[in-house]
Design a protein that fits this description.
single chain; 418 residues; 2 domains; five-stranded mixed sheet
Length: 418
């Protein structure tokens, strides 16, 4: 039944054409039977019946045109004194169509013209004002009121159809907009999830591989002079590989929807000691200093972000700072949140990582939190990932060369106010 209704909606002209043809084959013969015996009456009845009924085929597709043609035919019928005929039923039908499908101005014009036409019809064919006594005037008034009731009924039914159609169209438009918005939300969620996975994969793989490569290169040269170095180095490589494998399994478990894997705790600030031990074992001297006291506890996601900032910063030191370099990690609990900085005294970075002003030197204490909303452009997957992580918690990240040499990363993660 629903598919049949949809077919009628899609093929409006075909349906109206069939209805018009049926009405023509009924109204025209009835009009010819009731017409006078003269050939002129038969021709006039046939012509006007056709002119009144045929435009109904366009009552929904070309509503204003159909209404104008039928109105012109009805006025001409009145002017030539052609007697009313069954085909005149096209007038209330097209009035319904004007109220339902035409613009509002055409609907109101059709109503006014039909009301006037009722008076013209009665006074022309049923009630002659010049030759009828005043006693019979109530009969004419009743006749006019009866036709007006028919006209108002047709127009009101069409207007109700119009209101229902506009309401259905509004609901369809709203459903379409909601579907588009839902599709956009799904696309944004998928894009956000891909970015999250990319950040996690980079943080896990890049850090672990950097440690492994550093250890392997160091062991290759040191083993020639001291063979006892190789077992300890291989043990560090194995431990780093196992830790990275566990992190990869946790991430893949979350992607597969495993409840056990998703409930495993993520790294936080309490795990920084283990991270620094691994970095020192890889051959990078690194110091860590914590100042201030936390006004409130950071959420687990914010702690993970701070952990990843330190991890990525030290990984970049191992990859880019060069030999004989030292690093310093500073955590400062300020009034508005946590300030994290990672500095090294290596060979710095390219100009693409530079900002307009250098960070203070190592001995300047914890860096002040960068102004909110002044995020500098960052390059590289690691720095880009750090910037995305920090931005999720309304924080800021600055990465730039230091005034006295080396490179520094400063991140600010505010408290999550509830």
């Amino acid at each position: 039944m629903h598919s049949l209704y949809d077919w009628f909606r899609r093929h409006r002209f075909a349906v109206d054409l069939v209805v018009m043809a049926v009405l023509w084959f009924v109204a025209v013969p009835l009009g010819l039977v009731n017409a006078g015996s003269g050939s002129g009456h038969l021709v006039g009845t046939f012509v006007f019946a056709t002119a009144l009924v045929v435009p109904l085929a366009w009552r929904r597709t070309r509503t204003v045109m159909a209404g104008a043609v039928i109105a012109a035919a009805a006025v001409l019928q009145w002017a030539l004194a052609v007697q009313p005929m069954p085909a005149d039923v096209a007038v209330p039908l097209v009035l319904y169509a004007l109220a339902a499908f035409a613009p509002r101005w055409a609907s109101l014009c059709g109503l006014a013209l039909a009301m006037l036409g009722a008076v013209m019809l009665v006074t022309r064919f049923f009630f002659n004002l010049t030759s009828t006594s005043l006693a019979s005037m109530p009969y004419g008034a009743v006749l006019i009121l009866t036709i007006w009731v028919l006209v108002l009924f047709s127009w009101t039914a069409g207007d109700l159809t119009r209101t229902k159609r506009l309401r259905e169209q509004a609901l369809e438009d709203r459903a379409h907009r909601l579907e588009i918005e839902a599709q956009h939300e799904r696309e944004l969620a998928a894009s956000d999830e891909r970015a999250h996975i990319a950040r996690e994969m980079h943080d896990i793989v890049a850090h672990s591989l950097s440690v492994i490569i550093t250890q392997a290169d160091g062991a290759r040269y040191a083993a020639a002079a001291d063979p006892d170095v190789a077992p300890a180095t291989l043990a560090t490589i194995a431990e780093t590989g196992r830790s990275s494998l566990q992190e990869m399994r946790r991430l893949l478990g979350v992607l597969r929807g495993g409840a056990d894997a998703s409930m495993r705790p993520l790294p936080g600030l309490a795990d920084l000691d283990g991270l620094l031990l691994g970095i020192r074992a890889a051959g990078l001297p690194v110091s860590c200093e914590t100042t201030g006291s936390a006004r409130r506890t950071l959420p687990p996601g914010a702690e993970l972000t701070a952990y990843r900032v330190v991890q990525e910063g030290l990984t970049n030191v191992m990859k880019h700072a060069g030999p004989n370099v030292t690093a310093a990690v500073q955590l400062h609990w300020a009034a508005r949140g946590l300030e994290v900085s990672v500095r090294d005294d290596g060979r710095g970075a390219s100009a693409s990582f530079a900002d307009t002003a250098p960070l203070p030197a190592h001995d300047a204490g914890p860096s002040p939190s960068p102004p909110r909303g002044s995020q500098p452009p960052l390059a590289g997957n690691g720095l880009r990932g750090m910037g995305e992580r920090v931005k999720l918690y309304d924080g800021t990240l600055h990465a730039k060369p230091l005034a006295g040499g080396g490179f520094g990363i400063a991140a600010f993660i505010p408290y999550s106010e509830t």
